[in-house]
Structure formats: C-alpha cells, structure tokens
Amino acid sequence: MRKEGVQKIASALETYISTLKTEFTQGMILPTVNGEQSEPTPLPVCKPEKQKAPEHAAGNAFKSKSVGVKIPTCKINLKEVFLTSPDELYRIFITQELVQAFTHSPAVVEADKGGKFQLLDGSVTGEFIELVPEKQITMKWRFKSWPEGHFATINLAFSDKADETEVRLEGKGIPAQEEERTREGWQRYYFEGIKQTFGYGARLL
C-alpha cells in the first residue's frame, strides 16, 4: 500500500513538472518558417531624453555672463603755469563763451555738478563730477573715437602761486593706445589754446 502511494506521488510530480516545462517554454520557441527557426525580434530600447533647461533658466544663465570688453588703460599727469589768478582760470574752463573762444569752435558747457559738455564739434564730450570754485574741476571726459561708453576721469587742481596759477592735471582710465593723443590734446587744445587766446603764457615787460 505504501509502495503504491509513493509511485502515485512520483507519477503526479512527473506530470506536474512536464506541464510546467511546456508552459514556461511557450512563446520562447517560435514557429518555424520553411524549417528555419525565426529569431525573436528584440524589444526596442528607449534612450532617456535630455532634459531641456526651462527658458527662464537659460535666460538667467545668459544674463549672468559678463557683457562688454575690458580695455587696457593708463594714467597721465600734466603740469602747467598760467599768468592769471585761479579764479579767472577756473572761469575759463567752465564758461561756454570762453571755452568757445580758446577752442575756436562751438561748444556746449553746463557748469553744474552732473552738467554735460561738448567741445571741438563733438570730438570731446563729458560730464562734470565736481566743481570747487578756484580749486578743482573733476570730470568724466572722452574723445569721440574711444570705445562706446568709455570715459576717463580728469581732475584739474588749481594752486595760487602769487601772480601765477599752477594747474595739475591727473587723468585716469585713459585707453592705453590713446595716451599720447590725450596728452597732446590737453596740451594743445586746452593749455596752449588758453595761453594764446587770453595772453596768459608770457610776462609783459
């Protein structure tokens, strides 16, 4: 009796295993075509899409980049003596009619802090930063040919030397390639122009 039970269990297991193998292999062995077994078609593999940054993020990244081009600059220093008082010389630099006289061309001069000026048919433009009567003139100053929007800072300091006035010019932020031209421009169009026009360059005997 026990022997028959073991045989029945073994027979049932054999049938069960055979059934499992049949079900498991279904679909893996494909029907043949003309006696040749077809290879299973591989499933397509999806590649992940590259995520695009939001438009506003791209805009911010663009804005964070520095805009503009840095240029090499230099500094100049000049000193000149005029045979006049500091008050008189100061007025010549900030009075439109007097500026037109020594530059021999139309000029626009707004003699106030933040006031604009334009000389030599627009070749020179700028803005007054600080005006201290008889003592100092500080301005943003540029030649028209300089890179757009670039200004040098020019400071004129007036010192009373008895019957003479000494002017010290300090120029910062001048484009390096324009150093000599700027130096000559101030010497010729400002200093020499004032002396020749108003007679402040020679002592009268």
Describe this structure in words.
A seven-stranded antiparallel beta sheet has the order 3-9-8-7-6-5-4, covered by helices on one side. Helix content is 35%, strand content 29%. It contains five helices and nine strands. By secondary structure, the protein is α+β, with helices and mostly antiparallel strands. It has a domain at 73-198: Alpha-D-Glucose-1,6-Bisphosphate, Chain A, domain 4 (2-Layer Sandwich). The protein has helices at 2-25, 55-64, 86-94, 96-103, 179-198; strands at residues 32-33, 36-37, 73-82, 108-109, 116-119, 124-132, 136-143, 152-161, 164-175.
How would you summarize the topology of this molecule?
Elements: H1 2-25, E1 32-33, E2 36-37, H2 55-64, E3 73-82, H3 86-94, H4 96-103, E4 108-109, E5 116-119, E6 124-132, E7 136-143, E8 152-161, E9 164-175, H5 179-198
Antiparallel strand pairs: 1-2, 3-9, 4-5, 5-6, 6-7, 7-8, 8-9
